[in-house]
From TrEMBL:
One Pfam family, short name: Methyltransf_23
Transmembrane spans: 12-32
InterPro entries associated with the record: DUF3419, SAM-dependent_MTases_sf
This protein's name: Methyltransferase domain-containing protein
Coiled coil: none
Lineage of the organism: Eukaryota, Fungi, Dikarya, Basidiomycota, Agaricomycotina
Keyword annotations from UniProtKB, A to Z: Membrane, Transmembrane, Transmembrane helix
PANTHER family membership: BTA1P, METHYLTRANSFERASE DOMAIN-CONTAINING PROTEIN
Source domain of life: Eukaryota
Amino acid sequence: MFDVPSQVSAAFRQHVLLYGGLCAVLAACLLFHRQFWPYWRFFYACFLKPVDHGNAADVKALSGQQRALEGFYRTQAEVYDVTRGLLLCGREDMLQLAAAQLKHRMDAQSGKPIWVDVGGGTGYNIEKMNDFVPVSDFFSAVYLVDLSPSLCAVSRQRFARLGWKNVHVVCEDARTFVLDKSEDVLDTAEHGAPGSKHRVKADFVTMSYSLSMIPDFYSVIDSIADLLAPHGLISCVDFYVQSAKSYSLRNFTGGHHSRHVNWFSRLFWRAWFRLDRVHLDEGRRDYLEHRFGTILNANERNYSLGAIPYYIWLGCQRSATSSAAARRIDALATESPYLSPVHYVEKRDEAATAAARVTRTQLRSKGFEAAILNLAANVPLPATFYQNQRWRLYYDEALPKHTQFGDNYIYAFAWEDPAEDQRLLGIGADDVVFAITSAGDNVLAYALQRPRSIHAVDLNPAQNHLLELKLAAFAAALPHADLWALFGTGRHPDFRTLLLEKLAPHLSSRAFQFWLDNAGTFYSRGGLYETGGTRIAVKLSKWLFRVLGLRGAVRQLCDAPTLRAQRAIWRVRLRPVVLSRWLSRFVVANEQFLWRALGVPPNQRDMIYEDALAAAAARGGAFVPKDAMWQYVVDTLDPVVENTLLRDSNYFYRLCLMGQYSEDCHPAYLSKEAHETLSQPGAFDGLRVHTDEFVEVLARIRPESVTVSVIMDHMDWFDPEGTHAAEEIRALNKATKLGGRVLLRSAGLKPWYISAFSAQGFKCERVAARTSGKCIDRVNMYASTWICTKVGTDPSALAEAEPPVQAVDDVNVEDSEVVESLEL
Ligand SMILES: C[S@@+](CC[C@H](N)C(=O)[O-])C[C@H]1O[C@@H](n2cnc3c(N)ncnc32)[C@H](O)[C@@H]1O
Ligand SMILES: *[C@@H]1O[C@H](CO)[C@@H](O)[C@H](O)[C@H]1NC(C)=O
Ligand SMILES: *[C@@H]1O[C@H](CO)[C@@H](O)[C@H](O)[C@H]1NC(C)=O
C-alpha cells in the first residue's frame, strides 16, 4: 500500500465518503426520476441485459433474424422514440429533402404517390413527414414494413391515434415484401384493377437507419430496385464510416465533400455500433450508390453529439435519365447544330452537311463522354445526369487543377461592370455568350438580356457553386424578400431550412454539399460578402476605418445625396488617410495582399509597372515600383469617387465599404423586375455551367458559334513568355463566329497579348482607357477595355482542329449505339 501520512489519508477518506455519497444520491435521483427511465431501459437493453436469443415463449415461436430482432427490441419498443430522438440524426433533414423532391416532381406526374418505408420501426418518420407534406392526403398509400412485431405494434397504435387510414403496417421481412401481394393495394382502383397482372410499384421508398441493421442487405437493395417505379425516388439516412481510399475513384457518387472518416473514428464507431447490432461496413452505402443513380448525397456529423458520421442520400433508378435528356444536355453544351437548344428536335438521318456530321461525331462535352465511359464500365452515370436542373456539367473533382482552390471561392462578388459590357456589346436574343462565372453576378446580368445561350466557365468549382445557388434561388421562385436577404444583405436567418426545403431540388449534388457545409455563411455576422478570398479586402478596410476612427465618415460618404457632397467628404476626411503613402507602403504594395485580397497576380502587377515605367520615362522622372502601385490605386479611386454616386449607383464600392447592398444600390439581378424575369420557368434553359479551363471548354464548342465572349482581365494572368495566351486566343478564334466579339479588360494600357489577337484573325480596338482623371466604368479598376472582333479565321487554328475527343474510340462504342444504350 501507499505510504501516506495518516492525516492526509483521513482527510482523503472523508472526501471520498462525501463525494461518493453525493454521487450515489444523485444517481439514485436520476435513476428514479421518471424522465430518465427510458434512457436507463435503453442502456440496460443495450449493454446490461444478457443477450436474449429469444427465450420467452412467443419470441421462441419466431425464427432467424426476426427472433434476434425481437430479443433486442422487445424491452425497448415503448421507449424507442424517446431514446433514439437524439441518436438517429438527420432523419428530419432526409424527410424534408425527400418531400421537396417529391413536390418538385409531382407537377410532372399525375396521381398521388405510394410510399414504402423499409424498416420503419415505430413509424416515427411517417408521422414526422407530416411536418413537410400532409401524409394522409399527399400519398395514396403508405406502407411501413418492419420485421419486429413489437415495433410494428407501437406503430399500429400510432397510426390509430393519428387516424390515418392510408397508412398500413406490414410486419414482414423487407427482402420479400412486394406491393401487389398486399391486398390493400389491389383495393385501390387507381393502381390497377384487383387481380390484374400489372405489378404495382412504389413511387417513394425510404430507409432510415435500417440498412445498417439488415444482415442480408444486398437482397434488400435488389428487391427495392424492383419495387421502385421507373421515375420513383429513394432516400436513405444512416450511419457510415469510410476512408477516402475506398471511394476516391468513384465518379458517380455526386461528390466526396467531407466523406472521409479518420482511422480512429472508423475503428471506434464500427466497434461501438457492433454492440448495438448496427453494421457500418462500407459495402452497404456503396452498393446503394452502385445500384441506383444519385440525386443528392451529403455527409454529416453532429458535433454536439459525438460527431458520429452519417449520410443522407437521395437516388433514383439508374435508367431514370433518358437518351433524349443526355443528348439535349450535350447539344446545349457543345452548341450542336442538330438540336435546337431550347426546343429539342431530332434530325438524325437528314444530316445536313458532311462537315456538320464530322462535328456531330467528334464534338462531345466532357459530361457526355463521362456518361459513355460509365456505361461502358457498367456503373451509374455521374450524378449531374440525374439532377432536376441540368445546367451544371460533370467535371472530375479530384483533379489538382480544381482542388488547388481549397474548396473555396475567391470572388464573393463580381468586380466588373456589366452595364458597361452591355453598353459596348448590346447582347441580344441571337447571341451565344461565353463568359467567366466569377461570382455569377454578371452571368445573371447577361441572362436578363435573354440571349440564345450562355456558357459560364470557371476553373474553380466553388465559384460555380455560388452561381448555382443564385440560379437555384430563381428556379425555386423564392420570394424577392428571401433573394434580397441572401444576396442583398448576405444574411438569412433560415438559410438551412431554405436550402433543404426549396433550393435543394435545383442544385447539383456537389453544390448542395458545399452549401450544406457552408450554411453558416448566411448566419455569420459578416454574411456572404465577408467570405471567400475577397473577404480579406472587405474586412481589412472595415478594420482600418474603425482603427482610424473613420467609420462615420465612410457612412456619410455612402449616403451622400449628391456628387458634390460626396466629393467634399472624400477630399476632406477620407482621401488624406486612404491615399496616404504610408498606407500604400504597408498594404497596397504588399505582394501577398495584392494576390490574396485583390486577386492581382505577379504577371498582372508587372503590366502595371511597365506602364508606370513608360510614364516615368516620358516625364523624365525615376521609376519607383511602390509609387507605381500607389499611383494605380489613386487612378482607380479618385475618378470613382469624383464621378459616381455611392448612394444609388456604384454598388461595387458601396459593398466593399458597407459589407452589403442597399435597396437603392445593387446589381441589376437583385431588382424586383429582374426577379420576375429570372424566376420564370425556363429562364436559364440556354445556360451551361462548365467547370474547366477556357481552352478545354472552347475546344468542345462547335466552331464558329460563339458571338460574344467576356473574358475579364484573365489574360493578364498569363506569362508573356509562355504559350498559354496564344493557345487560348487560337481556341477563341476557332469557336467565335465571324464578326463575333471578345471583350476584355486589362491592368495595362496596351497589354502585350493584343498583338497575338491581331496576328490570329482579330481586329482589336481599345474602347476605353483610363488616363488620369477619367472613369471608364463604375469599378474603374482596369487601365483599359478592349473589343477584339473576329475578322478572319486563323489558318493555324483550322489546321489544328483535331477532335479533342478520343475517349469514345477508347471504349470502342459506336456513337449511335451509345446514344441508344443511354436508354439502358
Ligand atoms: C434502427 S431501427 C430504425 C427505425 C426507424 N426507421 C427510425 O428511423 O426510427 C431499424 C429497423 O429496421 C428493422 N429491420 C431490421 N431488419 C429488417 C428486415 N430484414 N426487414 C424489415 N425490417 C428490418 C428493425 O426491426 C428496426 O425497426
Ligand atoms: C445535433 O444534435 C443536437 C442535439 O440533439 C440538436 O439539437 C441539433 O439540432 C443537431 N444538429 C443537427 C445539424 O442536426
Ligand atoms: C468512372 O469510373 C469508372 C470506374 O469506376 C471508369 O471506368 C470510368 O471511366 C470513369 N468515368 C469517367 C468519366 O472518368
